[in-house]
Amino acid sequence: MRTSLFSRRTIRQGAVLAVGSAKIKLLLACCILFTLIALSGRTTSFMGWKQYAGSLPRSSLPRKGYTLLINTWKRNDLLKQSISHYASCPGLDSIHIVWSEPDPPSESLINFLNHVIKLNSKHHREIVLKFDINKEDSLNNRFKEIKDLKSDVVFSIDDDIIFPCTTVEFAFSVWQSAPDTMVGFVPRIHWIDKSNGNQDKYTYSGWWSVWWTGTYSMILSKAAFFHKKYLSMYTNEMPSSIREYVTKNRNCEDIAMSFLVANATGAPPIWVKGSIFEIGSTGISSLGGHHEKRTQCVNWFAAEYGRMPLVSTSVKAVDSRCSWFW
Ligand SMILES: *[C@@H]1O[C@H](CO)[C@@H](O)[C@H](O)[C@H]1NC(C)=O
């Protein structure tokens, strides 16, 4: 009996090795897991997980909330949609809209937004709405220092992506346990480019690479929590050459922020699992040549810092109320 069990295990191990990928192993494990879940449907409802998923107990809500820092450009419909959604999230303190269009926001847009905020905010909490109007159209605008900010942390977001409030609040709680760290939903990775034997060249990689390896070193500011001190550091302490590079190339402000936080903390960011709903159509990342430009940014910033501050990790924060299996 023992022998047969042993040999069966060796065969299975051999098969997995032949396939040779941890990811495939994971997929297999998931299949087995789903079968188990299907079989044990009764057990899970008995344990009452559903009952708790999605609603944090009142007492665990912090008194201080977060500020929504939303970047928008000539897409008022998307702005209206996302603001009316986020206004309903319980931890939201205030909303700052980064406005870089030549014309100031119209009276009707401001009225509409104030109206939906009042309508959707929970328990009639007062949410402050502010426009940060910029004369110059630069990607650095989104990281300008905000004076008199009620909260310590901003949730930086693009106008075309929406997360459910439970997901946002979960990421917020992750940030609270690591307030110096960047915490968010869109991870990216840099690799050392060994193709020409040069150890100091890096490549920027997107979602597939992160998914395949489970490793990342950046969290993009299109959906991330970070401490407000990084806004003032970005504007006042980061080398101005980096800001100039961002303005000139109209790209990579998010990578610059990742470098800044990594240099300050010496630690990796934290990736939070969450479902993303994209409400817009195409963004900058679907334009051609995007990858090469991003790779250039990574190399240029690393040279500017005199070293590579980004730290890789494979930690992923998951809401344990929503995970099926311990
Ligand atoms: C990186 O961090 C160090 C130590 O905190 C600091 O002295 C240095 O100015 C930072 N580098 C840049 C380029 O911001």
TrEMBL record:
Any coiled-coil regions, as ranges: none
Similarity comment: Belongs to the glycosyltransferase 64 family.
Cofactor: Mn(2+)
Membrane topology: Single-pass type II membrane protein
Compartments it resides in: Endomembrane system
Sequence intervals crossing the membrane: none
Residues annotated as domain Glycosyl transferase: 66-319
Organism listed in the record: Sesamum indicum
Gene Ontology annotations for the cellular component aspect, listed alphabetically: Golgi apparatus; membrane
Protein name (record): Glycosyltransferase family 64 protein C4
Chief location bin: membrane
One Gene Ontology term from the biological process aspect of the record: response to abscisic acid
